[in-house]
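ASSEMBLY PREDICTION REQUEST
Request ID: AP-0331
Submitted by: J.K., bench scientist
Number of chains: two
Total residues: 683
Priority: normal
Notes: Please return the full assembly, not individual chains.
Input sequences:
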Amino acid sequence: MKNKKTFWFPLALSVISLVGMALRWTGMSFEGVDYLNSLLPWYEDLKANGSLHGLAEYHGDYNLPYVTLLYFLTWIPASPLISIKMSSVLFDYLLAALTAVMVRDAAAGERGKLYGVIAYGLILLNPVTIINSGYLAQCESVWVFFALCAFWLVWKGHPSFGMLFLGFSFAMKPQGIFILPILLMLYFKEKKFSVLQLFWAPVGIQLTCIPAIMGGCSFDVFYRFLNMMMGHYPFVYYYYPNIWTYLQEAPYYVYGKVAIFSAFVVLLLFAVLFVRSRKPQTLQDMLLYITWTAMTCAMVLPCMHERYNYMSEILLTVCAIRRREYRLPAVVLSLVSVQCCAQSYLGWPWVSHYALAAVNIAIYFYLTKNCVSELYRTGQGGKEAAYAGD
Amino acid sequence: MPGIERKILTFVEKHLLLIGALFSSALALYLRKIAVWWYYGAASFYFDMHPNHIQTTFYDLVVRLLQYLPALPLHSVKWLAGLSDFGVAGLLVLALGKEASGLKRLAFYLACLYSPILFLRGVTWGQLDSLAIFLLLAGYLLYRDSGPGHKRLRRCAALLTGSCAIALCPWFLGAAVWYVWMQERRQRDFWKTVSGMAAVVVVLLLSCALVLRLPWPEGVYSFTRFLTYHPESGLRYQNGAEWLFQMCLQGGSGASVLTMLAAGRRKLSYRGAILTQIVSVVLCGAFLFREIG
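STATUS: Completed
Returned structure:
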């Protein structure tokens, strides 16, 4: 009986892993426009150069640490399409495993393992992740994995390592910064680590740049690159269906600042609610707040591409495991993402971006209402408890 | 964690609401700085004093005086409206009363500051509703909080500010009279207050007419013209629907703020306040962004 009871767990994981790989394999031969126009030429240049010096010659718009990963992939005797995609697939599995561990911990008790397996399956079998790594050869799982590692380590009381992973995440893709708001909120609320430990993040960034520096890049290559990329795409709207979809023609030099300032104020106000809330926050709550803060960045910041809301799209499905009210929004959000990618890479014209934006905004406001109302209610406390109806 | 860091964090946590309010106010100001450049095609009809225009002589005088400021003509009016929004938000917070929690005050402050109707009517369109609402709320607070100490003085101040609000935007007369009716227990006191208000309004309007070198009856007529004439064309309303639409448009911002206040003081449901906002915004947006021939 004991064997039967414990047997289901590795069996379920194995089946999910195999099905996940099979689904990704269906898209292995697909060559998306980003692969053809960017990843493949960079790969070939690095391979032709044959040494780390190729990193100094790189002139693309992906962060150097990721390009360093591409360089190491040139050592593998496989086609670039397979090796690039499989590196992303590897991080899909790592991300799924990490999320399963987090959900298992959040649930605790008997059902923890079951929820962990469900989370593993939801990440690995989510069309968003399958398309991203298996079809488009993108690397969203890489930065999301490192970002969630950062949060997990901070949550577990290892802030220095957490910040190191924050640095890794940010080094891989600038969207890694989307995890920073929740880390800062934890810092303000719990006061369990020092702000000085944030300096481990630049250390993490520099660690990922070591091969590039050895290849001839300057010591501050990452920051020079970041500075160069700022304002490289001066558009408030850049194909992600968010609030700026309705203001596509708005000039970036004015509204770009509005977008950044608005995102900051929205997150600050959420931080006010979060810090003042008297309710002890559980891991389950934190996953929801990570979803919301990441989605705030994707919905409000300028120049958001489709794929930038990746973290929210996959985490919302995980939040929906135990919270029924998020199941429909999670499904719809994933479908919106699939439609966005299909529009960009396959030319599917079925749904207008205005409609997608409206759906996204509705989901965002629904999430906001749920997150804010709970924090607002528990933040009243004391003599205002009589006004709990407020 | 170093001791100084803990002290800073404790200080920040203690003043978190204030920090949130400050940054939100900065963003609200920045948004108004952008919106002030938006031009409504028919804006000039509200300031050109054409025959049968609906602005009172007090309104006209305020606009005339604003032209002495070193700013573009319409911008001075818009900035007065925009800055009045902050005043309205502040007074709304005070009006919530001491029993309201810090979070509730911040929430209402933000709701008022980012109210779409105030934004549209004020800094986008260039109407001085916010200034009138500010004066009305000031009068309300002075009247409500007039304790035994300086009751007569505060009541007089309330009368003055309330009258200025009504002289600026006559469509707020109903709200002011209704409030006085609800507060005064004796009919004699009610009539005394209302008569005092009427006297102040009349004197103010007549004085403004004289300052503007207009015939003095213009001061009185200007008070009631909003009921009869279209604000842009100066023609009589053609039908009831047109009249109702304009009345809702003119009173929308005041209704939104007052229902917000009522909801905050638990006299009205939040749904009612939100519905009033939505209806006002839809009407205002439909009028403001229509195609102007």
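REVIEWER COMMENTS: Residues 231-379 of chain A form one domain.
SIGN-OFF: pending second reviewer
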